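>> received
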Amino acid sequence: MARKWRKGDVVEMTLPMDVRRVVANPNVKDDLGKVALQRGPIVYCAEWADNHGKTSNILVPSSASFATAFRPDLLNGVTTLTATVPTVQVDEAAGTIQTVPQMLTAIPYYAWANRGKGEMTVWFPAKVVDVDVVTRPAVQREEKK
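>> returned
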């Protein structure tokens, strides 16, 4: 249909940008059983600042349901992904490990490393299949001089 365009006419287009899980290539052994999050062409990551100071303990199961929200106040304006997911929690005093539900906030990968030093994760385990126990060296006391 022919149309005569006038000053101020607007064309709006809405493209679906569902959140999807990207599965790692099986040849990348370090990422087996892990997923990355993508919305449209944008890959997302979790950064320490939004996730209780830690991201290496976050799981993203296939049942996780993500919500999107534009945050004009965050990193000059980004769309975030949020979902309640299990996180691995260690109780050092009790000597136990368990998973606890926590809100995951993911930001576009292009926007990370702008809020100080801390953990960042792109590839999330989908479930716990093994636990790799890592110990920290004992804190060494400074000798008084």
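>> The beta strands are 19-23, 34-39, 42-47, 67-71, 78-91, 96-108, 120-121, 124-125.
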